[in-house]
Sequence to fold (172 residues):
Amino acid sequence: MVIDGAKALRKAVQMVLGQNGLVQRCRIHKERNVLDQLPEEKRAQAKWRLRGAWSQKNPATAEKELHKTWPRAAASLREGLEETLTLQKLALGSTLGRSLSNTNLMEGCFARAAHRTRRVTRGVGARMILRWTASALLAAEKNFRRLNGCEQLQHLEKILHEQGATSTLQAA
Fold:
């Protein structure tokens, strides 16, 4: 599962999938949270350090590099750090790994649905809200593109199966 830093989402994943559910924290959200803890003049350097560490193939090397950052940002960085390195631990290809390292896929879909339903304001019940949402998501689906690195999904499923992780992937 790819999630942002919401504790409720993490708890839901654990409730539904148990210990077998692997979580990749959104690196974009984590980067923003860490950079917000730093003075403006330190942000550019911290940004390239974070991205450089996340590009390491070895999760231990990446973690060691990330711990070298500034003390004020260290607490934000430590919280959920392990989950930002999930893709490295899976030794996933860089193309698919880049696509699954953040929540942009879901956020883009929901932004399109929100745009389509932006004028629906009142006078609708729960059933109508569900119908509008379903209609908006079906309309958004027409603009979906192929996932970058989709040819690596079967390899990901094999890795997840070997590790005993819960897999809900379908053959592409």
Summary: The beta strands are 2-3, 24-25. Residues 104-141 form one domain. The chain has a mean pLDDT of 83. The chain has two domains: 2-102+149-163, 104-141.
